[in-house]
Known about the structure:
By secondary structure, this protein is mainly α.
Amino acid sequence: MMHSTRIQNLVRLLHKAPSTDSIYMQSRHSGRVFLANPDEVTRICDEFDKIPDKYAFFERIFLHLFKVEDIELAVHFQLENLKEEELKKDQKFRTHVGKFQRFMTSLMDMLGKGGLENSDQIVQILRAIGRQHANVRSMSFTAEKWLLFKNVLISQLCKVTDKSYSTWSRLLGFVIFEIKDSYLEHVRHARSSSCPAIKEFRVFRRSQYRKSSVCSAKMDKNLKEMK
């Protein structure tokens, strides 16, 4: 049933895509595809390369997230009481910005060298990020959070021109979907793995209780006979 749904989604995406688009990147895990033509990909890669200070660029994005769009992120990192200038100097904040900057730089570099050829490697990186987010116990990454993050990214990437809006939207849609799919898969697996352990514990306790009850009954009977 799951594979059937993924195939239907793929067919729907293919029918909606312009005739010049092709599958530039795909995931064998989720069935998701990134549809684009080489010119579109070249354009967004060039736009990304032209960002003069990439750390400063992503710093602005995360400042906006922490201070305006998603205060819960700041609370999770225990940074909600810091002013903007203090936040910029905080090591936890700087580490998070730096990690995302390196991720996006690597992604665009691999994308520029050929999507399909690097699909598996890119997808593995995305799914690893999803698993890492699943290990965060203090916050739930809902569909709204993923969508919010995508929209903030697009708004900054297309701030100068919206000519590449559609391509960025499709690419980030693929990226966010794959991370989210891996995140949910890991969360489901963690929950299902914990249930049998609880069940076995209860069975053990019950059997232990029954054994204890039988022994107690025998002891009571022996005591009566001794009397």
